[in-house]
């Protein structure tokens, strides 16, 4: 069992600590943690999950740490902030507040919301000004299907140029729909009725002058729930116990190094290409 420690934040800004991290000199990192954090070898070993004997070998320069898994464990155990993790060559810790635009570009996840309820206002505000919106959902009743849904009002409001919206829904006649109904404990009839209701409500929007709407059906088991508002993606997931709006939501911003944003954009485009077009 690992018991992390709380080291002074200023420690990670020291030149000798930054040099040790960049060189992956874990012996020096441990010595500095002992010197400025008052930690014993034993406490460092407990924090990082390294046995007492091996910790002693690291301190004495007889053992080098090269395994990424062990480096991650050390970073977690010593409570390294993201700026220290990056010097060590590790990815930032998901969920830590971002402190610079460069860091946000590197991690790709620029904010984590506990659920849709905490992200709703930001998404709605962005949708009012959006030129393009993509949705990947199961039923989308809470997103756009109902009058009081998250995006129906912003996307149908008067604007200078129509907003282009694409909606991907789960095919109610697919085996995946029956599987998903079983996963969340709904009858297949009730579950698929919700999808058909959403389709009917979306058809009502086809004559909206300020909305250029396209709808298609996919037939694979839903995993990701995606809302793209211009270049920002709000990503959540479906699992066997919860719906997408109950999941944590990850905000992905388009950036040079953001593989997540690029990957999910590519996935959506591929899914749209193979989906059955309805509207």
TrEMBL record:
This is Helix-turn-helix transcriptional regulator. InterPro entries: Cro/C1-type_HTH (IPR001387), Lambda_DNA-bd_dom_sf (IPR010982). It comes from the Bacteria. Residues 30-87 form the HTH cro/C1-type domain. One of its GO terms (molecular function) is DNA binding. Pfam families: HTH_31. CDD domains: HTH_XRE.
